[in-house]
Amino acid sequence: MNSISRTPAEITARVKALESMLIEKGLVTTEMVDRMVEIYENEVGPQLGAKVIAKAWTDSDFRTRLIDDATEACKELGISGLQGEHMVALEDTDDVHHAVVCTLCSCYPWPVLGLPPNWYKEPQYRSRMIREPRSVLAEEFDYVVPETTEIRVWDSSSEVRYWVLPQRPAGTEGWSEEQLAALVTRDSMIGVAPVEAVS
Amino acid sequence: MNGLFDLGGVDGLGPINASKQEPAFHAEWEKVVLTLFPALFRAGWFGLDSFRHGIETMDPVVYLTSPYYEHWLHTFETHGQRNGELDMDELDRRTAHFLAHPDAPLPEHASNKELVDFIDAASAGGVPPQRPTDNPIRFAVGDKVRLSHDAPRGHTRLARYVRGKVGTVSVHRGAFVYPDAAGNGLGDDPQHVYTILFDSAELWGEQAEPNTTTTFDVWDPYIEHVEQAVGANA
Questions:
Q1: Which of B16, B91, B109 sits opposite A125 (nearest CB)?
Q2: What is the pLDDT of residues B91-143, one digit of tens each?
Q3: Please, are residues A193 and A67 in contact by the beta-carbon 8 Å criterion?
Q4: pLDDT at site B234
Q5: What is the per-residue pLDDT for A199?
Q6: In the Cβ-directed half-sphere of B52, how many Cα atoms lie within 13 Å?
Q7: Catalytic: A107?
Q8: pLDDT at position A61, please?
Q9: C-alpha distance from A59 to closest chain B C-alpha (Å)
Q10: Optimal mutation site among A7, A22, A140, A141, interface B, most CBs of chain B within 10 A
Q11: Cα dist. A178→A57, A163, B74, B178 in Å?
Q12: Catalytic residue of the set A5, A60, A74, A102
């Protein structure tokens, strides 16, 4: 072990050195990197999860299928893939609010949310969220959940990937799916924020 | 292993640096490291579980303080060294070269459509962790179970904060690759996975927050019956 952290310049050089060796072995190409980046910068992100949520809010049959088997329901919308091979959508109610964490590493439902933000992968959120979720939501995310509402935290210890189907905000009656999808944030699907209608 | 990465319930790590918006990548090198995950998976350097275990063996001080994707770089190096595919002296030599000459070019190389197609197939199709098994489904929804006290020295997903605790089976998820086997190079050994619901008081005693619960997914060998659900078949 070498407990000296590398500087950004050292990490950059180390990665380039490794990349150069793996290019020579034929295991990676710069085109492969470009394709991966294109997918997770521009194609796969929380806009896909938002589309699923908006459909669930406006189509009760789809909502039932989503709760029953989120992996299959998402495939109906062409949404599937890496790190979401077995997905579960957790339906918020007045009685139960759900939130998601991976205490052991950084597991996250990539097909519907894209790559996780850094804070989700860092020790602070992972250590505290299961122990004091009510305080974390209130203090760190300005999200005060009523004490009468159970907060259920889902620790992603297996390959099952959880994400939250938040409550539809009041004042959105008659809105289109597109309008509703625009309200749904990454944080609301992690469970650290509600969905709020713009007044 | 009882490593520092097993962070559930640890106190004193400070405030969360939450962001509303954030780019997918914070530096160019992160793009390469993300891509090496599917590339080296394809090359057979690791499976998902052994990939995680490579991160778990990092120096804990570096683990806590380094950028996230440096964890991945560490597991690539660990597995490359283990399987004899990576000449570490050569890696050091090239690192020094690129440190002195950051703009030095990468080796020229031809396109390989197969590799790009693999990225498309993996990102859209995933790498299914489900596996068939003839093992019996030993637990029913509503059963009370106790989690194992075991403290394996290799890879496991049995977090310290749930060991020895009693919870309720809430869902059977099907059968999956068993991390305690696959993460230690012992094959898939598929096992049934269950979601266990814990009341916070069981986990944190008098310090538990009111009206909060936690669920944690377990593989069959992690749990034993305390009490079968009323009405369930034995």
A1: B16
A2: 999 999 999 999 999 999 999 999 999 999 999 999 999 999 999 999 999 99
A3: no
A4: 45
A5: 59
A6: 25
A7: yes
A8: 98
A9: 25
A10: A22
A11: 11, 20, 42, 41
A12: A102
Question: A64 Cβ partners below 8 Å, 6+ apart?
Answer: none
B86 residue type, one letter: L
Does the pTM of the predicted model rise above 0.90? yes
By the CB < 8 Å criterion, does A145 face chain B? no
C-alpha torsion sign, points B99, B100, B102, B106: negative
Local confidence band at A2 (pLDDT 50, 70, 90 cut-offs): low
The answer to whether residue A30 scores a pLDDT higher than 50 is yes
Mutate to test the interface with B, among A2, A6, A10, A14 (most CBs of B within 10 A): A14
Q: Which ipTM did the prediction report?
A: 0.96
* The two structure tokens encoding residue A47: 């806009």
A92 at B interface, C-beta within 8 A: no
Half-sphere exposure in the Cβ direction for B130 (13 Å, CA): 12
Determine the Cα–Cα distance for residues A162 and A143; give it in Å rounded to an integer: 20
B44 exposed, middle or buried (CB, 10 Å; 0-12, 13-18, 19+)?
exposed
Q: What is the pLDDT of residue A1?
A: 46
Of residues A74, A107, A156, A188, which has the active-site annotation? A107
Scanning the structure block, which residue is given the tokens 């908006």? A54
Pairing of strands A150-155, B212-219: parallel
Residues listed for chain A: 199
Q: Is A41 exposed, middle or buried (0-12, 13-18, 19+ CB in 10 A)?
A: middle
Chain B touched by A130 (CB under 8 Å): yes
